[in-house]
Amino acid sequence: MNELEDILGKENVLYNEPMSKHTTFKVGGIADVFAIVDTQEKLEKIIKLNKKITIVGNGSNLLVKDKGIRGIVIKYTSKDFNIEGTNITVSSGMTNTRLANILLKNELTGFEFASGIPGTIGGSLVMNAGAYGKEMKDIVLKTEYINLDKKEIKTLTGQEHEFSYRKSKFQNLNCFILKTTLKLEQGKYEQIKNTMEEYAKKRNDNQPIEFSSAGSTFKRIDGYITAKLIDEAGLKGYKIGGAEISKKHAGFIINSGNATAKDIMDLIEHVEKVVYEKNNVKIEPEIKIIGE
Fold it and tell me: How far apart are CA 166 and CA 286, in angstroms?
């Protein structure tokens, strides 16, 4: 892996790195190689090495299996952005929280809904992240990505993203998102700040943010409130090993302290089974599960 160290510097290439350090669930086996990449130029050089790579963002909607990940795991940390009028072009490595604060300072409104989502812009695009009635699809103009099969840079515009509930075209592409352009509106500092604080309070009041989790574990289902189905099935507080259905919000599986990835996957399977038996409704996880 000397080629990787030459590109990134030894301090940014970690071997046999526990993925529990890089996911909000705080579980997961080791990555053979964990590479921290802070520029597009370095990223393109790594892709040309033709090694097996796995891409992670902030690890906030991710469950890594207990045997870990083979090959190279890339964490992209570029924070580049450029504001033109009410549009901002921002690197996929930027966190939602950091971007929200940049937009606040520049009095641009429209991104407040994502200000408390603990992920990166890249991850938010892949999952069409949303909250409080708004989603990424509402503000995305275009996105630049690398097609990893052809080693080509491509651009999607508007409806080409194929956004739907917690889905996007990126889920069906072998690609790496580089940057996206968001369409916002001019706003007022105090109003934007108040909205962000209001959303933060709602999260604090209603979600188990004091525990390690990957956010909302299960997808919403048309006609049903998923957390209510789980609660009514008597599963709130149910545990398998260190994985537990949150007593505060049944839509969240939390790591109560010593969970393994298998505990979490077994609990997901159990919840799906019980909810289907009681309501004849199939629910499925919102989180992405990777590794071996």
Answer: 8
Size of the chain, expressed as the number of residues it contains: 292
Contact status, residue 246 vs residue 216, Cβ threshold 8 Å: no
**Bridge partners for 78 per DSSP:** none
Any idea what the CATH number is for the domain that residue 181 is in?
3.30.465.10
**Residue span of the structural domain in which 138 resides:** 81-205
**Positive or negative torsion for Cα 205, 208, 213, 219:** negative
List the one residue out of 12, 208, 247 whose CA is nearest residue 118.
Answer: 208
Active centre residues (catalytic): 166, 216, 286
What does the alpha-carbon distance between residue 241 and residue 35 come to, in Å, rounded to a whole number? 31
- 168 with 274, same domain: the answer is no
pTM of the model: 0.88
Residues 6 or more apart in contact with residue 64 via CB below 8 angstroms = 19, 20, 23, 25, 27, 28, 29, 261, 290, 291
Q: Which two structure tokens, joined as six digits, stand for 70?
A: 């083979």
pLDDT per residue over 228-254, tens digit each? 999 999 999 999 999 999 999 999 999
Provide the domain count of the chain.
3
DSSP category for residue 204: H
Distance CA 90, CA 231 (A): 39
